[in-house]
Design brief:
about 325 residues; alpha/beta; UDP-N-acetylmuramoyl-L-alanine:D-glutamate ligase; 9-stranded mixed β-sheet; 14 strands
């Protein structure tokens, strides 16, 4: 048995959630309900101006790994933070979830600080996100512990991390170590704009190394350059052993071994959709690592997604295994 069921590699950031009002957004030039990339000076300035805030480690794949840890999975994460206050918050929070986190921190004198997303929530529930990537953008091949990768049943790669100058080489190092030891590779496409920026590199990786592809409707259609969701799924299935394509309230499609499985979504009141795909992937991967069938894994993913969208924040607040039992999945 390998030491880890799933090891994630991706962004390492801290989400800073604060309540505010429309006047604050207008006074500070913040677009309501959208995500804006900001620089360090802007991040520091906004942080100084907001009121009481909740700080929790974030990043798409980090949320996925936190979900795996919440379920009791043997899991670890690789992502870059600086040796500063927010960097230590990220590390402590992820470890407190039960995940192993050993990535070497960037020194305090590094110009770029730990990445953060300042999330401002207005009374109507709308979230306005201000994202400073910071040093997470500079994940380096030297940050990849090949011994850890060799001890993983699965590695889970975050598409967002393709934007870093050394990330492609870092991913290649992780893939080589994992595959060389008999492990498998999962990739999430993360965002259709990310796909547009890196389609050729994604396609090469998918064809050569990916065993499980996660994507939503927009991402998979962007990847295969078609407006036909079914055609995009079929094109992916011709290249990847397992394709998992989510479609919001319409559920999820799983393609494997020539079969097509559709699993409806779990109805719930949507409070905050952030993290739905991340927790879906975490539950799906955990189920797969525990030996469950693909349909059960998809149902677990939908249950986990329904839980995380029912409240503010991208981490589960209810016992997911208990929810799985309620749904007859355990």
């Amino acid at each position: 048995m390998k030491k880890y069921q799933i090891v994630g590699i991706g962004n390492a950031m801290v989400d800073i959630l604060a309540n505010t009002n429309d006047e604050f957004l207008a006074e500070n030039g913040i677009g309501k309900g959208i995500m804006q990339l900001i620089d360090m000076d802007r991040a520091v300035s906004l942080y100084d101006r907001i009121g009481p805030a909740r700080e929790i480690s974030g990043g798409s794949a980090a949320n996925t790994i936190a979900g795996v840890a919440h379920l009791g999975g043997r899991t670890a994460y690789v992502g870059k933070v600086r040796d500063d206050q927010l960097g230590h918050i990220f590390a402590h929070d992820l470890r407190a979830q039960g995940a192993v986190y050993e990535t070497r921190m960037a020194p305090l004198e590094t110009p770029d600080e730990t990445g953060r997303c300042i999330v401002l929530v207005t009374p109507d529930g709308e979230r306005s996100m201000n994202t400073y990537l910071g040093c997470t953008e500079f994940l380096h091949p030297d940050d990849i512990d090949t011994a850890m990768m060799a001890q993983a049943e699965w590695i889970y790669l975050e598409g967002y991390r393709f934007d870093g100058p050394d990330s492609h080489e870092a991913f290649a190092r992780a893939i080589s170590a994992t595959k060389g030891a008999g492990g498998r590779v999962a990739l999430t496409l993360s965002d259709p704009f990310c796909v547009e920026r890196h389609r050729a590199a994604f396609r090469d990786m998918i064809a050569a190394d990916v065993d499980l592809l996660f994507a939503n409707r927009a991402e998979i259609m962007a990847m295969y350059q078609t407006d036909d969701f079914a055609a995009a799924r079929a094109a992916a299935a011709a290249e990847v052993a397992i394709v998992v394509a989510t479609d919001s309230e319409n559920g999820v499609h799983v393609m494997a071994d020539g079969a097509h499985i559709h699993v409806p979504a779990v109805p719930t009141q949507i409070v905050d959709a952030t993290g739905a795909g991340d927790l879906f992937a975490g539950a799906f991967l955990w189920g797969l690592a525990e030996g469950h069938g693909l349909e059960t894994c998809a149902r677990m993913g939908n249950v986990a997604a329904s839980e995380v969208i029912s409240h503010i924040g991208a981490r589960p607040e209810t016992d997911l295994r208990a929810m799985f039992r309620q749904h007859g999945l355990l």
